Amino acid sequence: MITVREATLSDLEIVHDLILAIARHHDQEQYVVTTKEELAASGFGIDPVFGVLLAEVDGVVAGYCSYTWNYSIWLGSKCMNIDDVFVWDQFRGKKVGEILMLKAKEVCLASHAKRIQWEVEQDNHRAIQFYERLGANVHLKGIFKWDIAS
């Protein structure tokens, strides 16, 4: 049975492991600079700036979805920005990712947000097909990154 719940501070170790796992999966582990201490302070303190949904299969963590909130002036609504969706290899193909995304949708609706948005690599055809099956649409737009602190 697959269940999804909000991560708590006691899940810090597995959340960090999952972040590193998706980075390794995309050959980008060198870009992960966050620490467990930073995650604890930013995500599980008094005013968290991100959330994490954990999917469990029979009590074993199978994957996660991390998100932040933004506001769209054009839409006139709060929006969820998904950072990562990742499922361990042994749980892929069992609808874990789909259930995580549907739970993210529930969290949005409960928060009166009107949109969920995320990035996907243009050559990640499998992920694009998965998201399109859920009813999402790809909007191609350039992304700029300006690192202003060292």
Description:
It is globular and about 40 Å long. The mean pLDDT is 94. A five-stranded mixed β-sheet has the order 1-2-3-4-5, with helices on both faces. It has helices at 12-25, 36-43, 96-110, 125-134; strands spanning 2-6, 51-57, 60-72, 77-87, 115-118. The longest helix is centred in the C-terminal third of the chain and has 15 residues, at 96-110. 31% of the residues lie in helices and 27% in strands. It has one domain: Gcn5-related N-acetyltransferase (GNAT) (Aminopeptidase). The chain is built from four helices and five strands. It starts with a strand and ends in a 16-residue tail after the last helix. It is of the alpha+beta class and 150 residues long.
Distance between the termini: 44 Å
**Alpha plus pi helix count:** 4
Name the poorly predicted regions. none
Q: In CATH's first tier, which class applies?
A: Alpha Beta
Helix content: 25-40%
CATH architecture: 3-Layer(aba) Sandwich
Widest β-sheet, arrangement of strands: 1-2-3-4-5
Q: How do you describe this structure in short?
A:
This protein has helices at about 10-25, 35-45, 95-110, 125-135, and strands spanning about 1-5, 50-55, 60-70, 75-85, 115-120. With about 150 residues, the chain is an alpha+beta fold.
